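Schema walk-through. Below, the input block comes first and the output block second. Nothing else is stored per chain. Lengths vary across the set, and this one has 613 residues.
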Amino acid sequence: MSTLTPILQVNNLETVFSTAQGSTKAVDKVSFEVYPGEVVAIVGESGSGKSATALSVMRLLSTPPAQITGGEVRFQSDRFGQLDLLQASERQLQQIRGCEISMIFQDPMSSLNPVLCCGKQVAEALLLHTKLTKKEAKARVLQLFADVGLPRPESIYKAYPHSLSGGQQQRVMIAMAMACKPALLLADEPTTALDVTVQAQTLALIDQLRLQAQTAVLFITHDLGVVADMADRILVMCRGKVVETGTVHEVFTHPQHPYTRGLLACRPTLTGRPQALLPTMADFMQPEASGTAVKKQQELHTADLLPNGGCNSLRKKVNTREKELQQPLLEVENLQVHFAAGRDFWGRTRAYVKAVDRVSFAIYPGETVALVGESGCGKTTLGRAVLRLLEPTGGRILFQGHDLAQLDEEALRRRRRYLQMIFQDPYASLNPMHTVGEAIIEPMRVHKLYARESERRGKAMELLEKVGLSDEHFDAYPQHFSGGQQQRICIARALALQPDLLVADEAVSSLDVSVQAQVLNLLNQLKQESGMSYLFITHNLAVARHMADRILVMHEGRIVESGTPEQVYLNPQQAYTRTLLSAVPGGGIKDMMAARQRREILQTVVPATSLPA
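--- output ---
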């Protein structure tokens, strides 16, 4: 195949979603091409049409509500020659998907089969599309698991998806997508759930596949640092349309569209403060937008426009002396969570995995404590154990002086009104049979907040606006929203009960940078107004520095380092902490482009495919 022939050519693609509220054009006359060995990145805010474009290319959208109404998607197949995927038969698509075209989905848990162990799911693709024996397929899967950085590949092979962390689930999905060495890889937020070290490892693996097998990559992400390091060309999408396109250097150094400039300006970094963007900037680009709507949005997001960055202007650090005079809101003492790792013939446990191993810390009123570390280090397990969503093996959890580990079921249910959690996987934590409004109102009804249903409805609509949605979304269902929008719904639901402590488990990992800025502003504003405290679990070290009063670094179930953001980031004491910090993509535009240049110099030893100008 000639290198001048695109492996994928999309012409005037149109996709419409139809609901009871009307039709929305999610993909509006989108055109682009991808060449062998090339990485094309699609960036834009949540709901801009990035994922819908990729799913339309693969013809994986449910019909209804989605319908591809126009355009063509031409793929250069080894098996069928040039083929319009929109006109291909179901049999042809089955032979191409997973073999010549693979996709890494945004939500790993909803993409993995819960009743099959992880290894068999990956081996299934190899047995279907290759001539490997079962033994050879298993060996290949174990090698893939090692390549994507999964610990104990043999154990992961036998494990079920629900027993893995979100980051580990995503790595299983990446291994599955790369198993057959596809000609085209569609990566929809492939590193969103990964910590920085595994992200760097995964990106290097995708890049290695691109160079060795000339695999083309359509890379969908909201992480601009990843884009600068990985992509050859960029498409910027807004409201279903491509508003800007160009090489990485052109778009990052001389952005032409105001929307692109806004996206570049509001990325949090380790060294600087983000200049927050109006999170609903897309609304200002519509000709029919009224002056009243614009004014309303400006009032809603005034905090985002403060000169030093909304998040930090609202940030309220807790004075050390004041803390010493206060009683902790939460005290965790020698907390342990162990899981059985194997059993003997009689069913007795032979070994344990110490997911949380004698962890102790305190959170004071109005304080944000960030918990950072690699995927699988025990962060999520610790957060769930604090709320007794997982039963601890040992230790004490004192909340407002009450030991949660000793409370009966009814007392714990009453206490949970003041302890809320934003889960890592938004889709799995929302009931698909309930509308968005019902999801937010239900906890208020259970805990008997507000006297009338109309008051609850009004509060739910207010919360939707606070997290960047609108009252028009009140009667829609979760499956009608993108991953980032689903996470905003979960945040609104958690805030409905006005908790004293909010455990945020990767609360902004699935959000684009502009919506992320809005949500962080909102969380800090609530902390300032109500004295709410946060246990902020994240793998994004820039966000952790931006939000936290104190940072806890977790590794293999233990807290290995703690301190203020300045102490941890500017003078890390542990080698593990220094490793985490070294894996973070560069902060500013110059840093990102310098990293890109270093990568290109290193790749001169492996000649890249010559692409058309």
